[in-house]
Amino acid sequence: MRSLTKLMAVTAVAALAVTGCGRADDTSTSGSGSSASGGSGSGGFAGDSLIGVSLPQKTSENWVLAEQLFKDDLGKAGFKADVQFANGGVGEQQNQIQSMVTKGAKVIVIGAIDGAQLGTQVKAAKDAGATVIAYDRLIKNTDAVDYYVAYDNFKVGVLQGNALLEGMAAKKPSGPYNIELFAGSPDDANAQVFFDGAMSVLKPKIDDGTLKVTSGQTAFNQAVTQGWKAENAQKRMDTLLSASYSSAALDGVLSPNDTLARAIITSVKAAGKPVPVVTGQDSEVESVKSIMAGEQYSTINKDTRNLVAETIKMVQALQKGEKPTVNDDKSYNNGVKVVPANLLVPVIVTKANAKEAYANDPTLSKLTQ
Amino acid sequence: MAGSAPILEMTGITKTFPGVKALSDVTLTVRRGDVHAICGENGAGKSTLMKVLSGVHPHGSYDGTIRFNGAEVTFNNIRDSEHAGIVIIHQELALIPELSIAENIFLGNEETRRGAIDWVKTNNRARDLLARVGLAEDPETPIKNIGVGKQQLVEIAKALAKDVQLLILDEPTAALNEEDSRHLLDLIRGLQGKGITSIMISHKLNEIEAIADAITIIRDGQTVETLDVREGAVDEDRIIRGMVGRSLESRFPDHTPEIGEVMFEVKGWTVAHPQVPDRLVAKQSDFFVRRGEIVGFAGLMGSGRTELMRSIFGHSYGTWLGGEMTLNGTRVDLRSVPAAIDAGIGYVTEDRKSLGLNLLDDIKTTTVSAKLKKIAHNLVIDRRAEHSAADDYRKQLRTKTPSVDYDVAKLSGGNQQKVVLAKWLFTDPDLLILDEPTRGIDVGAKYEIYGIIQRLASQGKGVIVVSSELPELLGLSDRIYTISEGRITGVLDKGHADQESLMRLMTKTSTTPKDAA
Amino acid sequence: MNKLKEIFGGDTRQFGMIFALVFLIVLFQVLTDGLTLDPGNVINIFQGNSYILVMAIGMVLVIIAGHIDLSVGSVAAFAGIVVAIAMRDWGIPWPVGILLGLAIGALVGAWQGFWVAVVGIPAFIVTLAGMLIFRGANQYVGKSNTVPVGEGFQTIGAGYLPEVGPNTGYNNLTVLIGILVCAAIIGGTLRNRRNQAKIGAELEDGMVMWIRLALISVAILAVAMLMASGRPGTSLPISALILGALVLLYGFISTRTIIGRHIYAVGGNRHAAELSGVRSKRVNFLVMMNMSILASLAGMMFVARSNASGPFDGVGWELDAIAAVFIGGAAVTGGVGTVVGAVIGGLVMAVLNNGLQLLGVGADMTQIIKGLVLLTAVAFDVYNKSQGRRSLTGLMMQNFGGRATKETAETVKQES
Prior knowledge:
heterotrimer; A: 369 residues; alpha/beta; Rossmann fold; 6-stranded parallel β-sheet; 4-stranded parallel β-sheet; 14 helices; 12 strands; 14% strand; elongated; B: 517 residues; 3 domains; 6-stranded mixed β-sheet; 27% strand; globular; carbohydrate binding (chain A); Sugar ABC transporter substrate-binding protein (chain A); signal (chain A); SBP_2_dom (chain A)
């Protein structure tokens, strides 16, 4: 009986403790209706504050590297870092961001799985006084996103388009060239931008007959690769080869990233065809090896180190109450507002310039010796 | 050979389950070479005793000692006891339908050569074993293709494969027809000649009377007595007296039928097998039931008696091809179970556990389950009404249970059957069909269930009883129909029927070589 | 000590999932320095998991009836995209959009119910097909794009109860609902007791009952007060309100109505049920159809919370819903389970997930831990049943009018 009484007492005290406080911190503002808005970066915050970093699924080397860099470098800069992956999908990322808000993160850096599905959480972050930085992928349809930091994705596409043309010209001086087009996952806002960038170069050449897309699949929704998955790209390439290239030669393939590029090359090899000029992006280890071996033609170096470093610089500026660097405040309309963007310039890498491009990269520089 | 030294001595066996003392100081001595019967009502502790013996309840979970072949033994599992030469054949056969006879015989005991199964040896040994039990089947036949009687023989062959010295048979003939039962009993006697001792648990007292050398009676977890048949014959009444602790004057309660006009009539009822459309399980059947009358249906297994009853009960079996039904003077066409229940027909299934009960339910839920409407307002169940209805039937039928909130799975067979009866009485039927109402139920509970059936008839309801036990039909029914091969072959009044006349009609086959399809 | 055991149902082991839930909350409350019971976080737990719990309600009925539904995630995504597009392109108002979504759920459910109940194909196969069909339909209809939804619609996934009445420092409506729920539970228990007394059933110790009621009331009031004291503009989430209403509705249907009885009967022993006059085809059809309707509702709640419908909505949800049901004490073989148990099972997973996220444990470890918890919970139940005790979860649930997990027949059959 004694233990029972004790239990009752503890329960009662606990209940009072959790419920007794009311809206202590907000009673002053709740009457007036509008909550504290604390405009982005206006006042700064403590140097050892929590910074939340919510990353998408752990699917590529770049995200894994980003996780490591954020953890290490935010720590070195004096912040407390909370870096999490959302392997379980959008729902999990939503809950993660909410948890970061609960923990009182001052800045939340988000690499969105689907940039259009985080409105509620971003708003909650904003309402709680946190600054939201969209990392690599833009967050759409909300006014609660403060900054966007990424490589210039349209530029990536342009570089890929040019590399494809150069690569094919080097193999075969004059056209017409047979090519096929691949795009990324339709739920990733960047996929369309890459594709548009590349098409800004390729479209005129298709129209004047220099390039011929044998399958006729030139629209974005025909070229997409669901979920950025290698298996989907490989299957599509298999189909294209058997349908359109039983006799014709394939000169080039526009691939939006390295993973897909390698899948495409695997498919072509399996069909017993010579490897065409294939573009890429991300500078993945396997693709750099492939480039050095003369198979994949090009990749894009969007050094994650630079992107993370730039993001941390923005966080530091916010901490001091300064305005972070922004170099584009016109292009990135997310449907509700134009998000101020800090764009980094990507570099095209082929076998010719690989050595200098990766000079600063401890892993990749070894491969280019 | 140790001469007449007992092969098995169990002394002071006490086994307790949480809250229940299942066995209390039980003693069992079995002479070498005997067929030793164990009798007792359901719940008396027979099966528990056999589980202790065979190591299902491991050494240490009970008190007392077991001596086998003169030495004390401690079994921790079935493998241990089988190793010593004790094999138990359970009531529910433990054969795998998709495997062959030979595979089943050597299951868990495979004939191997360098780690791989030696099929030649397996099949040859299986053939030898099958010959020993008198079964002329190809060892490669799948179990599902042979009948229950033959499956029982395969079980015995399986035991022989393990070099059995003491064979325990738990209700071996419960699922068998007369002929298969006789064959099985002959086989047990044959094994006896080859030096195999058997312990047999059975409710069928006539079989025990016929075969046992000694009989041990257990009641409420205690040994009542051991009767030695060699010292003088033991008759059924003597056994019953031991089992229930009193002598039953009559095995059927007194009942004076008051028979009224015809209340239910079936004409030209014809039904095809659900999977084999050209096989008829009921052929042009005609019969009727009068108010206050108990009508028996006798037929061998597979004769189509259950199929006929289920077809009448809302077409719940097979494909109905024709026939009409009249209930209380009106022609009715009942094509679903709910329609049949609403019209006032109830059907107590033969297989209580797989067809009659949801073993997850408690007593009150089961009692009301066939007519929820009766205790519901606007589809919402009135739990007070449910509880009190169930409690009424508990009192009426004298179901032994602490309360109606008790799970049916925990009840003994007889009390489970009372709950099933309560469920059908609750639907307030005019016609109640009971299929094997006393199967697997002990003598005391049988008597009570006969009383319930007779009371129903006295209330002016029509009652149909289907049973494999002819004495039961003869004792209970006012009139008995016989069925053979899906055809009603005769009807006998109470005064004119005996086992022989019934059996003659039950085995009557049609003279016409082929039925018109 | 014995009294304490009685309060929780006869045995301290049988605290069940409620104990696990309280344990997890206390554990994380300590580990996270009080963040777990931060008002905002409590609101998040409900808002971020209501849609899974709504599906768990449907799923427990499907599993009680002896089936399974693997298609719920895809059905949710399909309903979500159609509703989002209908509202964007045809301009239908959002309440009509919700009705449309429920109608789609009913249609999809009728389709699946037809194959399961009428044709007799196992639900595992039918819904495996449905998983592919409706995932494809989602991506076909939405062209694999993300389609945003308007603010009105967002209420059902991201909205809160409004502020009314005087400024008390709390959200008044939330507090009011908390008090009403407590009053209803106390009133219901007392009425039940009176009824039991009338029919002469065995009554439990009065003090035990009052202490249990006190504990339940304190818990409910604590949650309500927490939610009411969150950041202004937040309060009891609408999604949690929907969930609560569904728990009451389906709890009632499953335990107190004829159709509820029939679902348990079909799952417990279909042949016996049919021979007792249960139309098992109709039961199977309704159960499958109901699941798809609730899946559609869950899909819409998620779209509302996400402000948009996407091509990968609902991936893996079926596993979360099924895990919740089994943690909540249902049996794979059917016939056993409770609505409240499933929701508590889902909350255990939700609190676990949330706590690990607050601690900054990575997604990989989180999955490992969740898998182990599922296994442990069910293993504990199985162990307890093999010991002849009633299931933990089941026992706790009987106080909510639910049906307890029962021992299997084998363990109690001591005598043939």
